[in-house]
């Protein structure tokens, strides 16, 4: 393993770890917030370095096209979110919803979450990846419960129990993978390292792989938020601090999805094993349609968008399940766009909730008039998320729907049905919130619009123009995914 | 060259909307924006009509789908529609220079208005599925924002919601259609789509999807419900654009897909557009006849006209499928002619409605009346619009309808009996809708502009500013021109007919007296100019004779009305009473009308009252059940949000066991 | 030379229809009177009335607008043009091709349009009644007419009246479709001209009236023009029926004066027969309720459609 | 290898499954905790046996963790909790023990059916182990589903996790087993502390998750 890559990857995990300790020791919350931002920024820069180093693999860490996409994306959103969370936390302290002590803890957890996610993405060892995902789960659980209100605790608890079960299932799957690989690759690390696994996958016992995939799909699928394992997601989004909602939707779901994709590749490499496509498609459609229906009865704004995350994860899972260059490309694009858009939406939603002093949709009206900036960005975000051009998600939905309809028209029907349902629900809510006679404001917010604008403009740009090397990179990954 | 010019102008339009946002504090921003729009639309119009070096010019920009890029192209068809779009756009902008001043919150219009124009232009220019759909949805999006301009009224919000939902429904239909056209390989540029071969069932599917997609935007029944909600909600110049121009863009899309991309047609393709066209024509006109909201009325009549256009297109398909080039060209020309006409007079009428709205503050004609006295100029121009849209000679509406009739009369040459017998029935529908349309506009004009004012607002109403009047006058002049010299327009259209149905009408320009003869003069011919001259001649000669030999004296006196002069203007015939005969005769079939008369017993001192409620059957039987179904499902599934942790665990557990069983087997 | 001749022929036709129309009305009135064993006014009477009206001073309602004042001229002009473009004694007159059958129907439609508007201008309830009923009748009668036009022009393969007449003259044969078309056209004609049983031209102030209600406020020269126009309309319909269904004796535009004269005689004869038939019919039937009229016209429409479809059956086009 | 080793391994694994059934059956909290202690002990024994059998010394560590952490610390603190919360005597109504038992047996059968063919290539000991492990996992999950009391749910989860450890130990020469078991121990510690810290009783009068759900009160 070349030293520079080693250095970079370690930095990606080390910086957050160090920063976590640093903020934990830092009593003054503003300064800790600054450390938080700087650390995330540094991590992002190092992630960019990954773009130039050539793929490498070792027993513990490795880098290939697939996880570079995820690492860069997650570090970027981690960075913007940290910027956003600074202003958000300020407001929370002022309104006394959080104490400085909480914030210290919060920042420490934030950084360790970042570290854990980077580890999970860069881990070349399925066991290590599992450990990292587990740590990520724990940190998020703690952050979800940070408000200590009954609802927050209840949400954290639910997330905790369901998440742990998911993780347990994932571990069992991991062990089974090892057992499938062990006869071929012999005992020891080789049987747990992606590189060797991928090389030899064709010689593994398919039946073992099948059983393993069932566990992995359900286990990591729980973290992805696919129905019927989604239950933790809405509450966790709704009750935690909004930056965490953004991180959950923008990153953690992706990390879990990354794991699923890896194992999918493993199975596709083995001809005799079941094709994972149908399972993913089924779960994807189930999540899509379930979430779409759930959207209609939501009265909590954050829960609303949490369900929309489930819906989009469904679409992405569907796309990857379909497979093929177009659908995979669409899946990757959709994942990227969704992360950016959804976190942007949560940014504005957080400030809106602060400005209106409530998360009840019914009590939020006429935003475009009372808070033009927030209101219109919310409109833009929702317009993006329901897949209207010229924003990025339209492109991916265009590819998914058209390619699916060209290949299996019958599968496209439920897909389009779900998309339309979700479209209607979100548009209905948006119309209520953004337009009409404004409802009264609770107080002034110093909104930090910069991350919002950054995300939205990226999404807009992507909707019209994708830089060619990004495309090449995506296509390369799409090929990897088969 | 024209293409690049057009694209630059589109870019400029987008820049204008940015400029509007940046300059939002600037007091005369609105005037500036509209001026810029006029200029850009003007240039685009020139780009459309300027001679193109090649027959077809196209280019590709490195945007959109990376491995395809964004293709743009101008051929005769897109040039024609480009001209229509920007004529309408320029007119609307000119009108808005004056009308925009009435806008309370201009920032809800200005940023989106140029974007809307840009979107429509790009749709016409696009040459690959992705660019087309991006522009298509962008157009819907911008117009949605415009529909929500007066977002304080609840029904406008509802209109916006229904509109965008229907738009995206159509969008998805098109998406699927292009998915099939593009194939598994995803070759989405129109050039390679044209090359690709399509099986019969595929083209049938695509046709249906195109009907749904384009129809939902054009307002084809039964997908029209959003139109009467959305068009009136927007400010009048935007309504004019949506009704007069955007629906035409949808027609363009239909022509592009069905006549161009889909390859040689089969005869049965024609059935769908013709039947749905006829249905829309009838439904549209019937509902227009009973509306009392002026702008709603106009919106419904748009549905009718779209129906007529689709009838003509269906005929063109039928003829084309049987290789009857000349009749096909006739029908196709009729369709495009009507597209042009409708974009003119519908804009004119919406501008008139806007003038009435801003002049009197009233939208319901029940509270208007006598406007011919308070706003004479508007009254005159609006009358012109009414005559034109009622397909009365010598104005242009008649010409296109006459052409459609001529095309229908050629149906005996069709070999297939189904179509042969279908066409006359379609003809009845067309004739009926034309006649009802005339009745509808008699009612609208008579109640709103004639008689005595029914409200103070109507009495003190004022003519609008120069800009608005000027625009309307210009449009009326164009209507008259197109009515008197149709040969010029027909000859400009015929290249498009040549390319898309493989035939062209005989060149009309060289016919004597500037008359038009679609096939041969012995078969049918019409000369608007001559008829017009005749009418003027006989009218003036009559006047001259009478004033010379008869009397020219006249004096004013109270109205006679069989000896009883009633004071209050409320005793006039109202709009709803005017519509009563039609409601009675056709209401039962078309819309479930319920009239409730509450007649006080003799000696009782209260007023009798008649209440009429009219329901749109399509809504009741098609959309209401759908919404109800979604609601029930949503409430049913809502349980999933309220389970206890162990129940959620049970779900996971169940899934696990199920899958394990699957694996085990 | 021929040009001048043609121009003259056209001019003659214009004046002819103008002169004949009131006489036709007078003739019908006379016939009706005779059928009722009354003496009745002289045939020339309508002309007298018209001239008297023209001399009279016009009494305008206070809120009459410019539309109200210009409508009569427009109505008259449109009807007159329509009437003078239909072949009466000779086919293919100079400008006959400037408007085919559809255009002629449409011209009548425009006339109706303005008449209905004029009826609403003063803002009296009677005017409104008249206009709304006229609108409804029109919107049923016009499609019926169009259907009949379809039938005829499917058979003749043209919408040019002259050509149709020539065709019909050339191959006279009895056809179910033609018969139905004739009946339909008669129905339409009765309705369009406001004759019994649809409307009663003789009475005022009958609540079921249509045409008279619209022109209630008119007086003097305006009334004269409108009366003249309606007379022309009646004449036009009779000559339509004549030249389409009984094209005997029609001269062609390049015929010599002698044939023209024969054509003229034949035409006047046809008018007389038509008028007589109408009088007979009117005296033998009673006026129907207004809301029966749609059924009446609907019958016309159905006949038209049936005729159109029968064309395909009887004749293999 | 001699049969005796395998037999002992079987006996231990089988005992573990049996204990899981006992957990399913037991409805008194204090009783549950005792049985769980037994569960943990058996686990550590079988892991130790695996360590000896594969002579993989690191597994002894895992076994050690199992004994110390699961068989001593956890039960102890759980007892503390239930005494604090004064629910150590509560008898939980478990709907239809018989049915639960039947389902449990079905699950065991299922895990055998799934695993034995899948692991045909692996050596017999691993096969049995993994099959039993799956059974234990499923039984643990079943327990979590059937119990409404937080403490008993946790016990269910921990038994599930024991199954995982068993599987991990059974997988020959699997690296990171120690790390994983440590990570898991942390997880469990968190859960226990969770109940303890969140002081569910103060907030929701009792640890009945059913109540805890009612807090949401149809919030959506």
Describe the structure.
The complex is a heterotetramer of chains A (482), B (665), C (317) and D (220). By secondary structure, chain A is mostly helical. Chain A has helices at 3-25, 29-50, 65-94, 100-122, 126-144, 150-185, 194-200, 206-224, 232-239, 242-269, 277-295, 301-322, 324-356, 367-370, 372-385, 392-407, 409-434, 450-464, 468-481; strands at 56-57, 62-63. Chain A is 78% helix and 1% strand. Chain A has a two-stranded antiparallel sheet. Chain A is globular. Chain A starts with a helix and ends with a helix. Helices cover 68% and strands 4% of the residues of chain B. Chain B has 24 helices and five strands. Chain B has a two-stranded antiparallel ribbon with strand order 1-2. In chain B, strands 4-5 form a two-stranded antiparallel ribbon. The longest helix of chain B is centred in the middle third of the chain and has 36 residues, at 325-360. The mean pLDDT of chain B is 90. Chain C has eleven helices and three strands, in the order H-H-E-H-E-H-H-H-H-H-H-E-H-H. Chain C has a two-stranded parallel ribbon. Chain C is globular, with a radius of gyration of 19 Å. By secondary structure, chain D is an all-alpha fold. Chain D has one domain. Helices cover 80% and strands 0% of the residues of chain D. Chain D has helices at residues 3-25, 29-53, 57-84, 97-118, 124-146, 150-170, 177-198, 200-204, 209-214. In chain D, helix 1 packs antiparallel against helix 6 (150-170). Chains in contact: A-B, A-D, B-C, B-D.
């Amino acid at each position: 393993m070349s030293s520079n890559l080693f250095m970079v990857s370690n930095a990606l995990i080390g910086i957050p770890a160090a920063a976590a300790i640093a903020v934990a020791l830092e009593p003054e919350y503003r300064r800790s917030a600054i450390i938080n931002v700087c650390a995330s920024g540094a991590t992002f820069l190092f992630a960019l370095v990954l773009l130039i180093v050539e793929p490498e693999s070792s027993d513990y860490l490795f880098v290939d096209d697939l996880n570079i996409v995820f690492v860069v994306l997650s570090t970027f959103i981690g960075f913007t979110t940290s910027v956003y969370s600074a202003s958000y936390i300020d407001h929370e302290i002022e309104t006394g919803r959080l104490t400085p002590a909480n914030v210290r803890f919060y920042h420490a957890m934030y950084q360790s979450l970042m570290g854990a996610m980077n580890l999970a993405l860069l881990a070349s060892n399925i066991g290590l990846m599992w450990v990292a995902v587990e740590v990520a789960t724990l940190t998020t659980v703690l952050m979800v419960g940070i408000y200590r209100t009954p609802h927050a605790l209840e949400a954290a608890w639910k997330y905790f129990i369901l998440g742990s079960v998911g993780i347990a299932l994932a571990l069992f799957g991991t062990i089974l993978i090892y057992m499938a690989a062990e006869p071929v690759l012999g005992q020891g690390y080789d049987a747990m390292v992606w590189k060797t696994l991928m090389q030899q996958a064709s010689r593994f016992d398919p039946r073992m792989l099948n059983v393993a995939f069932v566990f992995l799909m359900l286990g990591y699928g729980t973290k992805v938020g696919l129905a019927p394992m989604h239950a933790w997601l809405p509450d966790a989004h709704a009750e935690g601090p909004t930056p965490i909602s953004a991180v959950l939707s923008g990153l953690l779901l992706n990390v879990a999805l990354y794991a699923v994709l890896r194992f999918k590749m493993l199975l596709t490499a083995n001809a005799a094993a079941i094709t994972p496509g149908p399972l993913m498609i089924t779960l994807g459609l189930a999540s899509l349609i379930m979430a779409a229906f759930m959207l209609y009865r939501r009265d909590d704004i954050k829960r609303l968008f949490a369900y929309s995350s489930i819906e989009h994860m469904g679409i992405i899972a569907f796309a990857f399940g379909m497979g093929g260059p177009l659908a995979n490309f669409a899946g990757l694009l959709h994942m990227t766009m969704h992360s950016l858009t959804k976190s942007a939406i949560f940014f504005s939603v957080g400030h809106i909730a602060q400005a209106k002093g409530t998360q009840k949709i019914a009590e939020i009206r006429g935003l475009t008039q009372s808070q033009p900036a927030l209101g219109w960005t919310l409109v833009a975000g929702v317009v993006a998320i329901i897949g209207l051009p010229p924003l990025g998600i339209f492109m991916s939905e265009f590819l998914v729907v058209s390619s699916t309809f060209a290949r299996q028209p019958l599968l496209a029907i439920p897909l389009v049905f779900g998309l339309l349902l979700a479209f209607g629900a979100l548009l209905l809510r948006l119309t209520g919130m953004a337009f009409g006679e404004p409802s009264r404001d609770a107080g002034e917010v110093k909104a930090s619009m910069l991350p919002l604008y950054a995300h939205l403009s990226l999404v807009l740009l992507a909707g019209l123009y994708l830089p060619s090397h990004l495309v090449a990179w995506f296509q390369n990954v799409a090929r990897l995914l088969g | 060259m024209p293409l690049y010019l057009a694209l630059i102008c589109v870019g400029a339009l987008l820049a204008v909307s940015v400029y509007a946002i940046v300059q939002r504090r600037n007091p005369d921003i609105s005037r500036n924006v509209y001026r810029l729009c006029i200029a850009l639309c003007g240039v685009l119009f020139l780009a459309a009509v300027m001679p193109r070096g090649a027959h077809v010019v196209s280019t590709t920009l490195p945007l959109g789908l990376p491995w395809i890029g964004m293709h743009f192209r101008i051929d005769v068809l897109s040039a024609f529609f480009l001209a229509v779009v920007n004529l309408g756009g320029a007119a609307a902008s000119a009108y808005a220079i004056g009308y925009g001043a009435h806008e309370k919150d201009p920032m809800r219009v200005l940023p989106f208005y140029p974007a809307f124009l840009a979107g429509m232009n790009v749709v016409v220019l696009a040459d690959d599925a992705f660019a087309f759909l991006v522009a298509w949805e962008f157009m819907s999006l911008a117009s949605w924002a415009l529909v929500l301009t007066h977002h304080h009224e609840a029904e406008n919000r509802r209109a916006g919601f229904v509109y965008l939902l229907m738009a995206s429904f159509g969008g998805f239909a098109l998406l699927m259609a292009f998915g099939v056209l593009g194939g598994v390989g995803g070759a989405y540029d129109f050039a390679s789509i044209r090359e690709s071969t399509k099986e019969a069932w595929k083209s049938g599917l695509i046709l249906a999807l195109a009907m749904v997609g384009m129809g939902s935007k054009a307002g084809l029944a039964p997908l029209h419900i959003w139109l009467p909600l959305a068009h009136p909600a927007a400010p009048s110049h935007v309504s004019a654009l949506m009704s007069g121009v955007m629906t035409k863009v949808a027609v363009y899309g239909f022509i592009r897909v069905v006549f161009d991309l889909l390859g040689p047609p089969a005869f049965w393709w024609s059935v769908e557009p013709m039947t749905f066209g006829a249905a829309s024509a009838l439904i549209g006109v019937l509902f227009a006849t009973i509306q009392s909201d002026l702008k709603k009325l106009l919106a419904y009549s748009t549905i009718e006209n779209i129906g007529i256009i689709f009838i003509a297109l269906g005929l063109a398909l039928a003829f084309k499928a049987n290789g009857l080039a000349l009749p096909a060209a006739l029908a196709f020309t009729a369709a495009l002619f009507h597209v042009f006409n409708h974009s003119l007079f519908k804009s004119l009428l919406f501008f008139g409605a806007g003038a009435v709205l801003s002049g009197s503050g009233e939208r319901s004609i029940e509270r208007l009346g006598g406007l011919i006295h308070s706003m004479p100029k508007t009254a005159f121009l609006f009358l012109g619009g009414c005559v034109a849209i009622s397909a009365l000679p010598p104005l242009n509406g008649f010409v296109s309808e006459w052409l459609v009739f001529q095309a229908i009369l050629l149906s005996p040459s069709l070999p297939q009996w189904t179509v042969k017998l279908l066409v006359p029935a379609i003809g009845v529908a067309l004739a009926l809708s034309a006649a009802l349309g005339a009745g509808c506009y008699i009612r609208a004009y008579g109640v709103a502009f004639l008689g005595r004012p029914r409200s103070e607002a109507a009495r003190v109403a004022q003519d609008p500013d120069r800009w608005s009047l000027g625009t309307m006058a210009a449009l009326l002049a164009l209507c008259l021109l197109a009515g008197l010299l149709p040969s010029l327009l027909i000859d400009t259209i015929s290249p498009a007919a040549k390319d898309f149905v493989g035939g062209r009408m005989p060149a009309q320009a060289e016919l004597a007296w500037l008359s038009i003869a679609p096939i041969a003069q012995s078969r049918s011919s019409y000369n608007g100019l001559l008829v017009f001259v005749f009418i003027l001649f006989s009218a003036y000669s009559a006047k001259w004779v009478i004033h010379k030999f008869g009397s020219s004296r006249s004096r004013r006196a109270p109205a006679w009305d069989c000896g009883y002069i009633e004071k209050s203007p409320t005793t006039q015939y109202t709009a709803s009473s005017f519509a009563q005969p039609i409601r009675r005769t056709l209401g039962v079939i078309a819309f479930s009308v319920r009239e409730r008369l509450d007649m006080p017993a003799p000696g009782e001192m209260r007023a009798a009252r008649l209440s009429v409620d009219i329901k749109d059957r399509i809504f009741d039987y098609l959309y209401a059940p759908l919404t109800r179904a979604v609601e029930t499902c949503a409430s049913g599934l809502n349980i999933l949000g309220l389970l206890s942790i162990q129940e959620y665990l049970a779900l996971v557990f169940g899934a696990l066991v199920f899958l394990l069983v699957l694996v085990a087997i | 030379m021929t040009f001048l001749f043609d121009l003259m022929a056209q001019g003659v036709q214009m004046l002819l229809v103008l002169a004949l129309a009131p006489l036709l009305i007078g003739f019908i009135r006379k016939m009706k009177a005779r059928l009722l064993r009354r003496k009745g006014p002289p045939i020339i009477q309508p002309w007298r009335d018209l001239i008297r009206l023209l001399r009279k001073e016009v009494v305008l309602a206070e809120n009459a607008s410019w539309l109200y004042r210009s409508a009569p001229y427009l109505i008259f002009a449109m009807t007159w043009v329509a009437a003078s473009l239909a072949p009466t004694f000779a086919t293919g007159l100079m400008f006959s091709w400037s408007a085919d059958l559809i255009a002629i129907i449409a011209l009548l439609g425009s006339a109706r349009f303005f008449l209905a508007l004029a009826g609403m201008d003063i803002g009296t309830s009677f005017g409104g009644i008249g206009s709304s009923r006229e609108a409804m009748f029109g919107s049923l009668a016009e499609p019926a007419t169009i259907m009949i036009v379809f039938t005829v022009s499917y058979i003749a393969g043209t919408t040019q009246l002259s050509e149709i007449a020539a065709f019909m003259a050339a191959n006279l044969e009895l056809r179910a479709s033609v018969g139905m078309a004739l009946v339909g056209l008669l129905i339409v004609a009765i309705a369009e001209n406001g004759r019994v049983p649809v409307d009663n031209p003789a009475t005022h102030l009958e609540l079921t009236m249509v045409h008279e209600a619209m022109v209630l406020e008119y007086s003097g020269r305006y009334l004269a023009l409108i009366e003249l126009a309606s007379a022309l309309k009646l004449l036009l319909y009779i000559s339509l029926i004549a030249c389409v269904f009984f094209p005997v004796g029609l001269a062609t535009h390049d015929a010599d004066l002698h044939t023209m004269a024969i054509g003229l005689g034949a035409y006047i004869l046809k008018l007389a027969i038509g008028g007589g038939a109408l009088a007979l019919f009117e005296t033998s039937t009673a006026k129907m309720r207004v809301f029966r009229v749609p059924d009446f016209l609907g019958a016309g429409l159905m006949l038209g459609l049936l005729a159109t479809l029968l064309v395909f059956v009887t004749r293999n086009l | 290898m001699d049969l005796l080793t395998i037999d002992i391994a079987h006996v231990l694994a089988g005992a573990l499954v049996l204990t899981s059934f006992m957990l399913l059956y037991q409805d008194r909290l204090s009783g549950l905790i005792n049985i769980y202690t037994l569960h943990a002990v058996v686990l550590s024994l079988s892991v130790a046996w695996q360590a000896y059998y594969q002579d993989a010394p690191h597994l002894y560590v895992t076994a050690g963790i199992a004994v110390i952490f699961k068989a001593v610390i956890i039960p102890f603190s759980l007892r503390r909790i239930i005494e604090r919360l004064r629910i150590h005597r509560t008898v939980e109504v478990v709907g239809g023990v018989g049915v639960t038992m039947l389902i449990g047996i079905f699950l065991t059968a299922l895990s055998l059916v799934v695993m034995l063919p899948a692991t045909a290539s692996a050596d017999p000991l691993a096969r049995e182990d993994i099959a039993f492990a799956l059974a234990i996992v499923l039984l643990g999950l079943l327990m979590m589903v059937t119990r409404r009391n937080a403490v008993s749910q946790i016990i269910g989860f921990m038994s599930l996790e024991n199954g995982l450890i068993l599987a991990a130990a059974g997988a020959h020469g699997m690296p990171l087993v120690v790390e994983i078991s440590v990570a898991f121990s942390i997880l469990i510690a968190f859960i226990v502390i969770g109940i303890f810290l969140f002081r569910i009783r103060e907030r929701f009068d009792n640890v009945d998750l059913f109540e805890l759900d009612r807090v949401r009160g149809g919030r959506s």
